[in-house]
Amino acid sequence: MKLKTWAVLALAAVTLLGLNARASAQDYPNRPVKIVIAFSPAGAIDILGRLIADKLSTMWGQQVIVENRPGAGGNIGAAAASQAAPDGYTLHFGAQTLGTNVTLAPSTAFHPVTSFEPIMLVSTALEIFMVANATPFKSVKEVIDYAKANPGKLNYASVGIGSSAHLATVLFSDITGVKMQHVPYSQMSQTYADVFSGRTEIWFTTAGGSLPHVRSGKVRALAINGPARSKLLPDLPTMIELGINMKDESSWYGFFAPKGTPKAIVDKVNRDLQKVIDMPDMREKELALGYRFIGGPPDKLASYLKSEIAKWQELEKKGSFK
């Protein structure tokens, strides 16, 4: 009888927990929601995160606040978000560093697979392969030929290890078999200055900040990364067209919740995020700002994150980051 009583009580407790989770999801959100972004304001992920936050705020009738927590290549903000209460009121809008830092800058405070519930792979970002105007290069092939003949002579710019420019160029170098010298900058303004002057020859970074300089002629764009040509720069070939197997952008952005967040809340946020990126005005911004919206269910992001971690781990084993 005692065993039967305990079984009944256990079943009742599980049922009650399930009912409470569903009730909280139906009521969610009933107070402000915080989105942690692990990078400084005004970058590509911050711009997109604030656009989404505004849309969700209107949709939910609650304030949705963006909190920038930069530092340690994204680890500080990600750790803070992972340690928040798993109730849906703290979300993390994370970037490709969640996939790379496991290899390049591992954290003891969190792990991107075990510390988060994936919600949605929201977007990738258009990446443009550019050279300084002071260089003679008029095609990607010319860059590759020169780099192969002169290993380590060409410098490429980034704002640090794990940044979009660093990762895209590492992948490009691995696929093409070239060796270039990495020049990391602490400030984007210095990156601009050195690339415009020709002190640093190669720049392979997202369109968000670089597109105006391409259009003004301050740098020479030679190709883009991604599955198809962009309406922003329709004359530029993709790397795939040039026979370089870079079909996916290195920069990506996804929503996560702390591990243990109820599935019903994760699913609601996923559905509402899909509604946001499907809005006509968001589709206009997608093109104008150089994003490529992805969307889809949480397990799509879960699979993508694991594949990203494996990809960069393999490149590390090959010595591609040296």
Give a description of the structure.
The protein has 322 residues and is of the alpha/beta class. The protein has eleven helices and eleven strands. The protein has a six-stranded mixed beta sheet with strand order 2-1-3-10-4-11, with helices on both faces. A five-stranded mixed beta sheet has the order 7-6-8-5-9. The chain is globular. The model has no long low-confidence stretch (mean pLDDT 92).
Major sheet size, sense and barrel closure: 6 strands, mixed
Q: How is the largest sheet built, in terms of strand order?
A: 2-1-3-10-4-11
Highest-level CATH class of the largest domain: Alpha Beta
The number of helices is 11
**If you consult CATH, what is the topology of the largest domain?**
D-Maltodextrin-Binding Protein, domain 2
The count of β-strands is 11
Counting helices, strands and paired strands, the structural category is alpha/beta
The CATH superfamily label of the largest domain reads Bordetella uptake gene, domain 1
Domain unit count: 2
Put the structure in a nutshell.
This protein has 322 residues and is α/β, with parallel strands linked by helices. The chain is built from 11 helices and 11 strands.
